[in-house]
Design brief:
Blueprint: H1 3-12, E1 18-25, H2 29-35, E2 46-53, E3 59-66, H3 72-81, E4 86-91, E5 94-100, E6 109-111, E7 132-137, E8 142-145, E9 151-152, H4 154-160
Antiparallel strand pairs: 1-3, 1-4, 2-3, 4-5, 6-7, 7-8, 8-9
Bound molecules: zinc ion.
Length: 161
């Protein structure tokens, strides 16, 4: 079997339950695995395809996670770096729910997820204030803390995801 056929076979094999993240911009899946806390110890079955040919995108990555659901926090983090990702929730071999993250109506103004990197920001001082940010730009990503106006750059943000 050719390599291409093997790749296709891997992509079409279905998972009984879990989550499929499709249409990830080519090469970004490792960042998403990091967001999901998948590093050195893996307990469930995971299939990752990196830079496969795509009609709508030049290349894309796909992640299939058996027996794994994503939290809102995780979805928001993925939305920050790959908003066009398509999420499919699989139950009993069937797609139970499917959506593109950018259609999930996560606002450019969002709570939590990140921590302001200004050490003297009130959100870092154990004060009862909510961490709130504004997504100013993507590629490269720029996020502003709504409390102290500190702008965080891609590097600051990536370290936190
Ligand atoms: Zn701040």
């Amino acid at each position: 079997m050719s390599d291409e056929l093997n790749t296709q076979k891997m992509l079409v094999s279905k998972i009984p339950n879990g989550t499929v993240i499709d249409k990830i911009p080519g090469g970004k899946s490792l960042q998403i695995l990091k967001i999901l806390g998948i590093k050195d110890e893996v307990e469930n079955t995971i299939a990752v395809a990196i830079r496969v040919n795509s009609k709508s995108m030049k290349t894309k990555d796909i992640i299939k996670l058996k027996d794994r659901n994503l939290s809102i926090e995780e979805l928001k983090k993925i939305w920050l770096i790959a908003p066009q990702s398509k999420i499919s929730i699989i139950n009993n071999y069937k797609v139970n729910e499917q959506f593109t993250l950018s259609d999930k109506h996560f606002s450019n103004e969002f709570e939590g997820v990140l921590q302001c990197n200004n050490p003297t920001c009130a959100t870092n001082m154990n004060e009862p204030v909510v961490r709130q940010f504004y997504l100013m730009q993507r590629d490269p990503i720029l996020v502003r803390c709504l409390y102290c106006d500190r702008v965080m750059l891609e590097n600051n943000i990536r370290d936190q995801l």
